[in-house]
Structure formats: structure tokens, C-alpha cells
Amino acid sequence: MSDEKDGVYCRVCGGIVPGSIDIKQILVDGKATGINQLEYIIEEVKNLGLAGDADIKVELLKRAKVLNYIPTKKEDAYAEGLLEAFKQG
């Protein structure tokens, strides 16, 4: 059920296997928005040991975009919401 290079996808429909989804919510422009693998993303960035908010936001957004659709026009708002979740976690 898993292709080590490309992630975990259903062999029947080609979609994401439901068990591999772990969605938590952040606030984006004041609206609750689901982010898949939020805890994993935050842990990865914490392990980098970055100090500045700007660098942290760049890394959070980079990782979140791999696992989630983030509209280009909303990247700054997502980065702020991700940073807030990072600071709370």
C-alpha cells in the first residue's frame, strides 16, 4: 500500500489513505483551517533550532506546502497561523 518514494496512496483509487491523514487546525485570517501533519511539521522545524520568527515561518510554510494546499495569496496568513501554533506547541 506504500510506495517509499512517493508516500502512501490507495492502490484502488490513487488517493491518500485515510489512516495517513492527521489534521489539526490553525487560525488563518481568523478562520479555523485544517493542516495535515501539523504536529510533524512543528517538530521538524523545532529540531532545526531556529531563533528568528521570519526563519521559522519560512521553514513551517515550506513543510506545510508539501502536505497541504496553500494558496499563494494566503501564504503570509498561513505562515502567521503556523507560527502561532509553533509557539503554542
Short description:
The chain is an alpha+beta fold. It has three helices and four strands, in the order ββββααα. A two-stranded antiparallel ribbon has the order 1-2. It has a two-stranded antiparallel sheet with strand order 3-4.
Report mean pLDDT, rounded to a whole number: 86
Distance between the termini: 32 Å
Percent of residues in β-strands: 15-25%
Described by strand count, sense and barrel closure, the largest sheet is: 2 strands, antiparallel
The largest beta-sheet arranges its strands as 1-2
Quaternary state reads single chain
The shape is globular
What share of residues is helical? 40-55%
Q: What are the secondary-structure elements, in order, as H or E?
A: EEEEHHH
Number of domains: 1
Q: Output the radius of gyration.
A: 14 Å
**What is the number of strand segments?**
4
From the helix content, strand content and strand pairing, which structural class follows? alpha+beta
Q: How many DSSP H or I helices?
A: 3
Model regions low in confidence, pLDDT < 50 over at least 5 residues = 1-5
How would you sum up this structure, described in words?
The protein is an alpha+beta fold and 89 residues long. It has one domain. The chain is built from 3 helices and 4 strands. Helix 1 packs antiparallel against helix 2 and helix 2 crosses helix 3. 18% of the residues are buried.
